[in-house]
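Deviation from plan, reported transparently: zinc ion complex.
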Amino acid sequence: MARPDRRVNLAVARTIPPFLLCVCVYACYIVTKPLCIDYLIRPLPKYSRGSRVGAGIAILVIFYVLIFVVIITYLRLLYNITRNPGFLPRSSPPTKEQQETEPSERPQRRKRKHRRTRTAEKPDKADIDIERGADGNADSGAIPLDITGLESFYTKDVFVCQEDGRPLYCSTCCRYKPDRAHHCREVDRCVLKMDHFCPWVGGVVSETSFKFFIQFVFYTLIFCVFSLIICATFTAEIIQDTGGANVHLAIGIGLSSLFGLFSFGMTISSLQLAMWNLSTIENLNRRSAVWTLAIRVPDRMLARLNPESRWAPTFRTITYPLPPVPLSPEAARDYQPPEKQHVFAILQTLPGENPFDLGSPFKNLQQVLGYSIIDWFLPLRQSPCADRTTGDSFYELGPVVSRLKKEAGLNPPPEPQPTTQNDTERKHKRRRSSHRQSQE
Ligand SMILES: [Zn+2]
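Because the crystal trials were delayed, the predicted structure below was used instead.
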């Protein structure tokens, strides 16, 4: 049965979009009728003022352009949240034999789930602990020894893993989770780079919608600031002229202040997260999170991992594909590993390091907003980070991963320095002179 707070979240999520629509319709009425028509263009006799047609029309044009932009970004956001939400398909539950490999895990998991609570906008820390462990990663031994679906991980060069080298696992969806995916309680599915469940937009903000969410709250902020300025200015004027305020304009001040403050907070926090290349969920323990990463050991180094080699690696390794489990002792004896093996070093970041931080706030913003000014301001194209065509990792990785590779000795050997033209000429001269000397 659904827990009350989850039901409340879902009910609020369904109520708020129609409520916002009503607010928009009322805002249009306030600016069009009581302000522009009845006060500026054809002032009612009670105002005893001359007609100001130019000001009225200018305000109407700016107001309707801004509200049009807000509605377009909101519809784009709603479209992605409903049509392309970034949900991961569920897998079939593990077999009885696989479940028997984790005798003590499930009761403990159930007990911890009861402690979970979450507010409407913010996922709580306990959710992260269940999937990633207290140090930011999954508990080892917390999952059935399922080997289905691993190919999409070990064919990459780097992926987030547990301490034993297997990817993180969602026991509700019964599947391995790609980097940065999170199980959303409200929709009961794993979501790619989930940011938060947002009742204001009626769904989950994730990698496919975070860009449009930022654009929506940013344009809402501009719209609210404009509405607040015009309502406040003309309310002050009316009070001066008549001694009383227009009730619709006063409500307009209240509404634009309220939504303006809310969208200001959301714009600043969303842009900050995008500049750090973090999701709201990752941000909850960003100062202490330790990421465990499986980083491919280059083929040229595999011979050095041989036990007879004199090189002692500083890391543990895991080799994919994993053998099917459970294996009987006879089957284990006869098991022949496949010819093509993928060996990964299991490395950990320092607490608070973010492997997805590309090293500059601008580069991180580009991952969400896009590479051109048009992409930044128009709600047209998807975020570059949602592009799944590049294959080395689920998301672009930054200097932290380069440092880990370097420290573990996994980087390719330095390229030979390209010789300059002068060096080449000098070499030729030296060769010619030595040739002459030998002839003499
Ligand atoms: Zn899940």
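Residues 170, 172-173, 183, 189-190 surround zinc ion (CB under 6 Å). We consider this an acceptable substitute for the interim report.
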